[in-house]
Amino acid sequence: MSRYSIFSLARHSLRGHRDWPRAWRDPEPKPRYDVIVVGGGGHGLATAYYLAKNHGIANVAVLEKGWLGGGNTGRNTTIVRSNYLHMANAQFYEHSLKLWEGLSRDLNYNVMFSQRGVVNLAHSDAQMDAHGRRGNAMRLNGIDAVLLDREAVRAMVPDLDFSPRARFPIYGALLQPRGGTARHDAVAWGYARGADARGVDIIQNCEVTGIKRDGATVIGVETSRGTIMAGKIGLAVAGNTGHVAAMAGLRLPIETHLLQAAVTEPLKPVLDTVVTSGAAHVYVSQSDKGELVFGGDLDFYNSYAQRGNLPAIANFTTALLALFPRFSRLRMLRSWGGVMDMTMDGSPIIGKTPLQNFYIDGGWCYGGFKATPASGWVFAHTIANDQPHKLNEAFTLERFASGHTIDEKGAGPYPGAH
Amino acid sequence: MSRQSFRLAAGGRIDRGRTLDFTFDGRRYQGHAGDSLAAALLANGVRLVGRSFKYHRPRGILSAGPEEPSALVRLRGDARAEPNTRATMIELYDGLAAESQNRFPSLGFDLGAAASLVAPLLPAGFYYKTFMGPKGAWRFYEHFIRRAAGMGRSPEGADPDHYEKRFAHCDVLIVGGGPAGLAAALAAGRSGARVLLLDEMAEPGGALLRERAAFGDVPATEWLVAALGELQTMPEVRLVPRAAAFAYYDHNEIIAVERVADHLAEPPPHVARQVMWQIRARQVVLATGAIERPLVFSNNDRPNVMLAGAARAYVNQYGVAPGIRAVIATNNDSAYATALDLQRAGVEIVAVVDARAASTGDLVQRARQAGIECRFGHAVVAAHGRRCVSGADIVPLGNGDGRLHAETVGCDLLCVSGGWSPTVHLHSQSGGRLVWDETRAAFLPGSSKQAERSAGAVNGHAALVDCVAEGLRAGAAAAQAAGFGNGAPPVPDWPTETTTPLRPLWALPGGPRGKRFVDIQDDVTVADVELAASEGFRSVEHVKRYTTLGMGTDQGKTSNVNGLAILAGIRGEAIPSVGTTTFRPPYTPVTLGNFAGRDIGRHFEPTRRSAMHDWHEAAGAQWVEAGLWLRPSTYPLPGEDIRAAIVRETLAARSRVGLVDVSTLGKIDVQGPDAGEFLDRVYVNGFKALAVGRARYGLMLREDGIVLDDGTTSRLAEQRYLMTTTTANAVRITQHLEFLLQVVWPELRVQIGSVTEQWAAMALAGPLSRAVLERIASIDVGDAALPHMGVREGRVAGAPARIFRISFSGERAYEINVPADYGRLVWEAIMVAGRDRGITAYGTEAMGIMRIEKGHVAGPEFDGNTTAEDLGLGRLVSTKKADFVGRRALSRPAFAEPQRHRLVGFVPVDGRTRLRAGSQIVVDSSIPPPVAMIGRITSVCDSPTLGYPVGLGFLAGGMARKGEVLHALFPLANQWTDVRVADPVFYDPAGERLHG
Amino acid sequence: MLLITCPFCGPRDHVEFTYGGDATLTRPDPATASDADWADYIYLRDNPKGPHLEYWQHHAGCRAWLTVRRDTLTHEITMTAPARKAAGGESGAGEAGR
Asked: What is the ipTM of this complex?
């Protein structure tokens, strides 16, 4: 893999940028691999990367039905954080955050990880108490958290509505200083380049249409580009996990839901941190290109359409303006939708399945982007060792039946409520 | 530059009688009513209007419509400022002030242009290849990149304008008021259908306004006047100008934004600035036209390199000559009309440079007859000039890169036409397919998924007569499908013109002449697309994201198809196999204020008030939000400290008598022969055998065994119960019960109804409560007649009332429900009746203190993960009932684990340090993180009754650890306290006060 | 937005309704079902990419719970009917085609 740097940029500029090497190859699928990862998004590519890097397993194929990074990796709102309450989540996402902090150098690809802070607003004493509980838990889990009072929030986000008649009065906020944003496409491309350089075959335009079993053991996949056998198969297709797992005969505690988001036209800097409000059901940040990126609730009906309807967009835009009246005259430039694996407790499913040699990394609800490095890390471990890593021990498929759910919101077995 | 020196002496649709003053970058100019800002600038000879995004190259006006990528200005100032506004879409008004963007210190001298010097280091995606180290460095680089990026500055201050939403239903919705759309409206309107016709511009007519055309012997403008006149006579036809349809959603719903007042300096009082239409149509006709493609050659971004159709618009619609000496570069017939129109306007035509070998089209013949030089088999490969185009290099095609044979001609206007791309966005958004048409080199609308059809230029028709004919047919077909007319409109028999097809010309050869821009706004060049493809970004989505092609504010309207075709050429594949990017709303950028409409400020969501709200307000209440409700938190006396007020209220209720408004709790009326059986299945404890006139605390679970809600449910009659819920869950529980009755147990004979708002509720609490109530109750409320947990109906202060002897505070208490209209009257009567007993109104703070002192669990303890056992209410769970919601899930392993967090009380070991809700409990506070958290504190109060702070919370192992000393940590505030595990019922554990 | 035809009230915008998820499940008999059956009922879903039978309640109108057949890929609605089953109670209205 030829290294990227300002020097290589300069060198190539002298040659008119005509002979940069390919970021990844475009190989034909082989008839068999040691491991097949289904899904060429951030998670699948990260898994392949760490299989090669951490476990020396490079006879791996990543099968992607479209173009790599084209699913939720290319559609999320790029927020990275580890500000979770429950220990299993906190430790997992914190591991991810630590990987994010070194990721650009590790991949030799600038993923533009910007640790600009994530601010969760509180609009009542009760919300401040809830933030206190979560922030204290974060600190005791070794994760950075700061409880801000109203004036401290004003110093960070002066454009919020601090007027006396504000619909969402600012009582304070919970800040994670090390949280922030990253460039979503870059993560997929960086992992793809790194995995490819280590010998992983990335096969695009290859849709899995069937899963081959020999009794309770999974042995291969049927695809739009032929049959491919494998020693182990891992699914990283969040949004479509239920649909693909059904090919193996599995039913999952997942409903596929629709989440929309939008961006404004690009502006000079106007928001320097990530701001979220649980009560207002909205979150917003500003991309490095200058666009405000914002979103909120699901559409609240099952959907695989990757496009939604007006009410969800109107709701989160209205909420944005309730917090930031000043943004009223800005214009929405694009909107889009993604497919979310919403689980019955709002937490992911990473681990083994009742079928031998078959593993799932899914159920990410709308939080999968920040998990990209850690999910790849632990999923590679799980596949390589046929055992979960300590960090994904709790995210089993069995936890629902046994009652060991990990429910941050306390919303219960109603996927749309998480 | 003298005033309006490029304004033609006559012609155009502007009102020359009304001269308007405006400023651009502080300089004053004049224009006329009917001008766009772009037209007025061109009339004054202003061609340099902006700087490009990355390289800060000088940019001018490319188009005459919404597809404009370059002429972006900041319109107005202060609170009404709007960055990134297309000058081609701004209707000029008197006093208009606009500024160019993305330049410092000025448009003419922009330091940002230095970026061009390092351009070789800035190809597409350069930022992925560098800025990686040292650790944390990205934040440093980002600081500068963010300032260089972004186009406009966001406005200061709150938006002074408001926005409205409106809803419409129609039989036929027509998007686009050009020839096809107007024709469709005529046909549909004549059939009697209800028609809504939207046009994006101020004046409908579309191409009819921009072209000099005729239908047979009739000038097209005459046809336009007649059509509009006829539409005016139809009562079921409505034409909405300045309305851009931007989204096509499910089930034939189309959303549009109408720019009601943007053409004025400011909206008149009480008039919305913009209105968002939500339209549900039986049938839709998309007559959205087509957008011209520029040609891709070196320095094709210079100011006054303009789309050929735009040049015609400036001449014919605005009466402006965009230049004095023009070259027209084209690959199709339509641009010859530009040569003719410019010549008529007195512009010198150097030549039409046509990439085709020949054309027999009528327009071409007319151009020749007018003496215009037509150079076939040639193309422009480079433009010269910097702040304005000054010349063009013309080469014969088929000669390599033509280096040896280039001829440079001077010009100050270079019109380009690479063909037309139908505006298929809404068709695609609706789920319709696209089909590549090889002859027209364009994506046309293919099969429809919803009830829509396309007509006119969007369907590939170049000739206006064809657009009208197809519009008539489409309008009639839509009307017929909606149940009106027979779908066979008379179509005029106008002569058509001969045309010769275009020759696809996606990019001219490059070389040292300069960059060839594909996306003019985002500075994406052919070299960038080649680079992306060579690095493996070969799908159109990858190319778009890697190079940012099509991601500017113009959404790629003049660049997407060129980019796609260039990519196909690089890949050596046919264009259809490369595909197209997905079309998603909005079709054109939409002001955010429209999505909120009037739901701004306090109107974001309704505010719910109890019947006694005004009394509380007058009494000086502090307010707290409980969901949408406002509740008094405390009633401080003038000058009284908040804490002192809360203490006063608490002590008053515990020692004398207090009154609190509890109207917000959910109330559900449950009636029917099976009402008791139903409640038995909903709650963990029993209600079927509850005696009439008795109340009972009820706990209900979710089907997964977790506590869902609690309340007090009373039996009012043999077949009638009144259930209460928490405030927060009132709506949800009602829906839950309705689901159970309609879906799960439809055989039960039960009716329910929410009566939360119908009853005002107040709790009279304290040792003197009965004494006060006796004075105003019509019935006997003595202990024999109304024992604890009893319910009686009667009158209180003359109003019909239900009296529930239940207590949340732990004191003797009566909850009085009266019909809401009587709420204030009865409240006031109670306050009067209790005056000599020292009655005190109290709010949620005092109420909270009292319930914490009594160990009653409430909101903070219900976090959606606690079981009845966790809450210390396991004894309530019936072991006898055959079924209730959640029962089967209780036996799961996780619920039986001994280290589950169970309800306990906490007291500070030193007896005085205040506890904090949100504290985490650990065994050993000296262990550094990560450390195991074995519990938490959920509710706290500094108890005035007990004289020391207490708290409720949860602890692994629960009350088995009573007496243990642990540590409550609040690291966020660097606080920690030693606490002792205690019984959560701190006050009156025997419950004697209830009978006091 | 989605247009749902309530059998009682006619075609209404979907914001008048509350989504209730999969309507193919039947609450198992608490007396005879195994723990595994019960857990399946609470947690497992078919989650099809295609026609989906689901619950919606017309909360802003007649308060009826409905079963609706809607395609989760195209959002096309092909059937709405009262959820109350014939075995249990009367519905007062038949199926609506859209």
From this structure: 0.96
